[in-house]
Amino acid sequence: MKNDRVLFLLLAQSALVLASEVRTFHLLKENRSFTAARQNCQARYKDLGIFRTASEARDVLQLANVSQQRRVWIGGVYNRSEWRWVNKERMNFPCSPQYASNNKTVLCGTIDPVTEMWNLEDCGNAHLSVCLDVQRTLYVISQKREWKDALSYCRTNYTDLLSIADVKDQKQLEETLQKHSLDKVWLGLKKHMAWQQWYWTNEQVLEYQLWAEGQPSHPLDELCGAAQKDSRGNFYWYDSCCYEQLPFVCY
After folding, report:
1. Same domain as 123, residue 171
2. If both were cysteines, with which of 108, 129, 150, 239 could 222 make a disulfide (CB 3.0 to 4.6 Å apart)?
3. Residues 128-137: pLDDT tens digits?
4. Which residues partner with 79 through β-bridges?
5. How far is CA 251 from the centre of its chain?
6. Closest Cα partner for 227 from 179, 152, 162?
7. 13: Cβ contacts below 8 Å, ≥ 6 apart
8. Contacts of 124 (CB under 8 A, 6+ apart)
9. Per the database record, which ranges form the C-type lectin domain (predicted)?
């Protein structure tokens, strides 16, 4: 199969370094299919390589070059004429591959460190992979605020209200709340009234979910999301009135 190729475009926007979130990339020297490579990355780190800035793109290229391979999996998926990252985030830079020569609905992305080109490939092919790891510092604010005030505080002083992408993020939150003896805190989770959908305020796709039984309960006055401890000491997500005053977690 002749691969459609996409010019690897570095972002013109410079990286914003945030002390509360450290993103690093790692090369796994095991030939696997795209799905198996992603599972391997998620088990060891966060996910397949997803990059947002020119600096991160250079890091990925350097790792791919070290591999001495002409094809290395990254976290890009081409589905129905659109590039997205595997976590369903939109790519924040232009990337428009030609699709006419392949009749598959979904193709997966590799990067060639020699040509700095992206390649569309059958997801069943076997390659090495670049993984992303994300280490976040959580900041617990015990002063109670309404949801919108909590959001403003986090964005002014840190990055954002906390979002949760997977089990690892949830575990980090639970351990943090246990240390601070808190039972309920605001998350960066909000319901869009027009779309009738829940979303994260940092634009992270809401894929992993851990709602309590019967939640969200959908009353018109409960449009903000919180993490709350149940009777067994486990934390689940609840919809709550946005005017309720709660502690909150920033990152």
Report:
1. no
2. 239
3. 999 999 988 9
4. 106
5. 14
6. 162
7. 53, 54
8. 33, 34
9. 20-132, 134-251
- The pTM (predicted TM-score) of the whole model is 0.70
4 domain-assigned: no
C-alpha span between 79 and 235 (Å, rounded): 35
* Category of 97 on φ-ψ map: left (φ > 0), alpha (ψ -120 to 50) or beta: beta
Q: What backbone torsions phi and psi does residue 191 show, to the nearest 5 degrees?
A: -100, 130
Q: Which pLDDT tens digit goes with each residue over 34-81?
A: 999 999 999 999 999 998 887 888 888 888 888 788 889 999 998 877
Q: CA 155 from chain center: how many Å? A: 18
Range(s) of the domain holding residue 45: 21-134
Q: How far apart are CA 52 and CA 66, in angstroms?
A: 21
DSSP code string of 234-246: -EEEEEE-TTS-E
Contacts of 186 (CB under 8 A, 6+ apart): 145, 147, 150, 161, 224, 225, 226, 246, 247, 248, 249
Q: Are residues 77 and 149 in the same domain?
A: no
Instruction: Output the six-digit token pair for 151.
Output: 């959001």
User: CB–CB of 160/154 below 8 Å?
Assistant: yes
Rounded CA Rg of the chain: 20
CB neighbour list of residue 22: distance below 8 Å, 6 or more residues apart: 134, 135, 136
